[in-house]
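Subject: sequence -> structure tokens, single chain

Hey, anyone have a minute? Need the predicted structure for the following. Not urgent.
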Amino acid sequence: MAPTYTAPVPLSSDITPRERPRFARFRLARSADGRCRARVALQWEQRGRFVGEAEALGAASGELRCAAQACLNALAQGVPGITFDILGVKAIRAFDANVVLVSLAIRGSPSAPRLVGSCLAGENLGRAAALAVLQATNRMITRSEGERG
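Reply:
Had a minute. Here:
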């Protein structure tokens, strides 16, 4: 059985949580040489817009990972001090719908649990991979610095 991890939560009421980023824009381009390039824009009300980009092989699994990494690259700009690694990205068929799942680890924190996110995909699997990253990281990135302790 895997060990559990609970982040300490201070009792002080003067800690304000970070705002949640909004998914502003997604673009996935495929090139003739078999590669793909993803671009994700995240918008924070107070901090502004941050754009992350990534490039990978254009196979289906490469496109999902590329989209997820582009979202993580945008998050890294907007939320300095916490970095995530992609453990896996997968599109599955469940309940007559396409669903994208992502599994992430917090870099430098081996005792922290894996973060898992999902998103109903429709036909745009790349966009769903980026949204699944946001769903997986939502609680972690909206905590204040003190709450992550």
